[in-house]
């Protein structure tokens, strides 16, 4: 758990309290699909640059990465609170494809591009239990390939050649945990039993038709 003292002036939130339509408490526009987190208590969105914790931590927020439990200083007695939630390798692959599509003019990418992004951004994923820093290139490639092939409902597949070589992939949507109010007294997050889908945000990049009509080769 990372907690920091509030560095905002006393009246920093005054205008925000009067105008609930502001995307961020700073008053500037924002996009929750990009680098923003939502306070799990008041539901206000914050740019990563407006979250003081990220100013002092040695990593940055990835696009669409909502795998954090964040409570703003206004809701936490003057201190920000941020904690990385558990991510599976499946989550890492989906978030990687989302980020690749966000920063490049392509929507489909080969596995090599996924491996390269994970390698270069491994510090920003902050998932030590997945051993991203120690796994070999071949093992990482094969694990990503298996995930993509086993999850047809989460990824689009496109063949770059008629023989099925150089397969390209795109993410259908990315899900980030939507934590419920009342789960913030303890550090451990416990998701309710039953289908988790109803507790998720669904951040779609494009519809299936938009993918097929707007394919660009990697």
From TrEMBL:
UniProt xrefs under InterPro entries: Zinc_finger_PHD-type_CS, Znf_FYVE_PHD
Domain of life: Eukaryota
Molecular function per GO: zinc ion binding
PROSITE patterns: ZF_PHD_1
Keywords linked to the UniProt accession: Metal-binding, Zinc, Zinc-finger
Protein name, UniProt field: PHD-type domain-containing protein
